[in-house]
Specification:
This protein is an alpha/beta fold. It has helices at residues 3-12, 22-34, 99-117, 140-149, 197-218, 264-279, 308-314, 331-338, 362-378, and strands at 39-43, 50-56, 64-69, 88-90, 93-95, 125-130, 156-159, 167-171, 173-182, 231-239, 249-258, 289-298, 301-302, 322-325, 342-344, 359-361. The longest helix has 22 residues, at 197-218. The chain binds zinc ion.
Amino acid sequence: MNTVEMLERLVAFDTTSRDSNLELIDLVESHLEAAGVSSRRVWSPDRTKANLWATIGPAVAGGVVVSGHTDCVPVDGQAWTTDPFALTLQGDRLVGRGTADMKGFVASALVAVERWTTQELKRPIHLALSYDEEVGGAGARPLVADMAAANLRPDYCIVGEPSSMQVVTAHKGIETYVATISGTEIHSSLAPRAVNAVEFGARLVTALSDLADQRAAEGPFDDDFDVPHTTIHPGVIHGGTALNIVARLCEVELEFRYLPGESPDALRTKIEGIAAEIAGLMPDINDVGIIVRRRAGFPDLDTPQDSPAVAAVEALTPVAGTSKVAYGTEAGLFAEALNAPTIVCGPGAIAVAHKPDEYVELEQLETCDSFMDALGESLTE
Ligand SMILES: [Zn+2]
């Protein structure tokens, strides 16, 4: 089977994060088995999804982790001109959900397994596939923990998120929160006698905007990032039930995208401090206040430019140079858990990910196939 045929099969599984990925994992398992490679599943708590990892080559220290996620974002409400779950060739583009993000990379790696098994590797390639990347990385955490418990000591890791095959050494970290503002309900004609949760929610949003403005003005800055500072974004707000009732509840969802080097704990303390300050303006009565809950997060990635991993992966791809990207990935989790420098490099453009008519170019997949061959070759010495 070639990479395009494998991609066709992977795209045909609707692995939107809210649904099971087990049919895809079954396919991967039997594909690996046919190549004589045994694999291990790391289940989700409700066993509706699974991660999978496998070792190709000798079970010795060193080698490389090659990782991708199996889930994709929903197509709901998007204006696709093709069936998103049927791979469609248009000119030199393969169109379908997940082609760029990131079943193209996964297909290329799976097809490469057969070639790797004949390459007489002296150090192993650990293939690692996760679930739930698109919804906070719930899958990758137990996956990397399982791999760490197996005492793998890879020289480096590659996470194949779409980078147009350029070496990416760094990305921002993400922390997401929900702030729940509790007020008191009353007929709106008596509004001054109650605590309007919507009003206090609005104060919280304004305070967050002030903090965001301050970061934009004062930094810290890293000009290698497109947006060179930490951003704070309140993306969703819900509150109130009717105009003639003072709102008892308001919820604000917010995210930080922070520069490598910033402490997510310090950011958390900051947002909790802001919430406490605003809650302090509420009258002193029972059950009013603001509770901030952390929802999810991805650590930042910050692989030093002089890390041997950077040179090693640069040697595998024809695309010159390195970059830092704005989007988050599982790379920071791999780096942290396996204590190994981690690089993001994969086919397709991030600009088409998550969009209708997402595509990967044939040429990108060919480059990725050569990348996989060169990776195997690099481990034969
Ligand atoms: Zn992705």
